[in-house]
Amino acid sequence: MNASEGEPKASAVDEIVGQIRTLIRERGLGVGDVLPSEVELAEKFASSRNTVREAFRTLKAYGIAESRQKLGLVLTDQHRNAMQDLFAFAMEISADAFQDIQGYRRLTEMNLFELLLVNLSQDHLCEVEDVNAAILNAATAEDASELDFKFHMLLVAAAGNRTLTETYAMLKPVIQRVMMAGKSQRSTLKSVFNEHQSIIEALRNKDRIAFAYHMDRHLSAGLVFIPDGAAPQKSI
């Protein structure tokens, strides 16, 4: 049977995969965006639908995309999420690991002030405050760490740097695991709330020094709950 009548040649499929990769880059597509249909891509790339279908299978096999009813092929990050979760699971939460992770966060979050002055709207600030208020009522340490991450993710995203936002989001499982430290205690939730409020007030007052001071204190606070080699508690 000829390739044109049966399965497409691997080289033809690889070529279409490469063209789809270029299309994703040129259009600035990201996770959650829908790729053009088989028919559209076959016409665009002057290829057969069978070859495009095999290219789609390749994307799905690598966890780059998934089929969703009524939408089509949607870009996803299943492979990346699996690797993140594995890394977070395998990582020992020690004092050294805490310092390394929070050191990364200092390099990013403490240098957001200028960008936030330009890009952070009042609506953004209100959303950040709402998330912070919810921390006080978190039912579990997991819920509290999810809200804590969301608070910081909102600030990072509001800075308007797409690469920084995507990089920070990639580290979510690791950062959230560190954020679990001490959140089994109600007094810690109150402290986190107050620290966040101080950061918000510094932004409202456009006070660079206060912002850096309170962010630094906040990023250091959880260390007292992590004796070397011990994992944070997980229940409230």
Automatic annotation (TrEMBL):
Q: Which domain of life is it from?
A: Bacteria
Q: Tell me which UniProt keywords the record has, alphabetically.
A: DNA-binding, Transcription, Transcription regulation
Q: Which CDD domains does the entry link to?
A: WHTH_GntR (cd07377)
- Which species is this record about? Agrobacterium tumefaciens
Residue ranges of the HTH gntR-type domain?
Answer: 10-78
Is Transcription one of the keywords UniProt gives this record?
yes
The reply on keyword Transcription regulation is yes
Which residues belong to the signal peptide in this entry?
Answer: none
Name listed for the protein in its UniProt record: FadR family transcriptional regulator
Q: GO molecular function, one example? A: DNA-binding transcription factor activity
